[in-house]
Amino acid sequence: QLQLVESGGGLVQPGGSLRLSCAASGFTLDGYMIGWFRLAPGKEREGVSCIGGSGNYPHYADSVKGRFTVTVDNSENTVYLQMNSLKPEDTAVYYCAARRGYVCRDDIMEYWGKGTLVTVSS
Predict the structure, then answer these.
(1) Beta-carbon count within 10 A of 19 CB
(2) What span, in angstroms and rounded, lies between the C-alpha atoms of 88 and 91?
(3) Is residue 98 within 8 Å of 33, Cβ to Cβ?
(4) What is the rounded average pLDDT of the residues 110-117?
(5) What gap in Å lies between CA 113 and CA 116, rounded to an integer?
(6) What CA–CA distance (Å, rounded) separates 35 from 64?
(7) How far is CA 85 from the centre of its chain?
(8) By the 8 A CB rule, do 90 and 10 touch?
(9) DSSP for residue 14
(10) Contacts of 15 (CB under 8 A, 6+ apart)
(11) Mean pLDDT, to the nearest integer, of 81-91?
């Protein structure tokens, strides 16, 4: 059974850091695009970052560029999102999603995790 499980969310003060994990099971990340998306209260879902399953083609939304870093550990079949210099506006439920191929867009991702909550507040 193909599954994505996010972890690492929590409460952090502005300026702090968190590392989210997206553990994949039932398939290997090679050949997939993995995306991180977030949904904040009252807002539409937003694409945060995407990366190829081999660690290639990382890219970021302008709102997180320079603060977030996405990486892949193929030995653990896990994608990480390192989030630094967090701001209150980063507060959201963060989801990882996967799609075979080279396109990463929330309306066509094939598999989704259940999300992990990140709250940035003093």
Answers:
(1) 13
(2) 6
(3) yes
(4) 97
(5) 9
(6) 14
(7) 16
(8) no
(9) T
(10) 85, 86
(11) 98
* 70, two tokens: 């996405």
Closest among 116, 85, 117 to 13, alpha carbons compared? 85
**HSE-up (13 A, CA, CB side) for residue 112:** 13
Nearest to 101 by CA among 30, 16, 2: 30
Tell me the DSSP string of 11-68.
Answer: EE-TT--EEEEEEEESS-STTEEEEEEEE-TTS--EEEEEEETTS-S-EE-TTTTTTE
Residue 1 has pLDDT above 90, yes or no: no
27, two tokens: 């398939």
Single out the residue of 13, 22, 30 nearest to residue 119, CA to CA.
13
Tokens of 78: 């896990």
Contacts of 65 (CB under 8 A, 6+ apart): none
**CA–CA distances in Å: residue 18 to residues 41, 96, 109, 120:** 20, 15, 24, 10
Residue 33 has pLDDT above 90, yes or no: yes
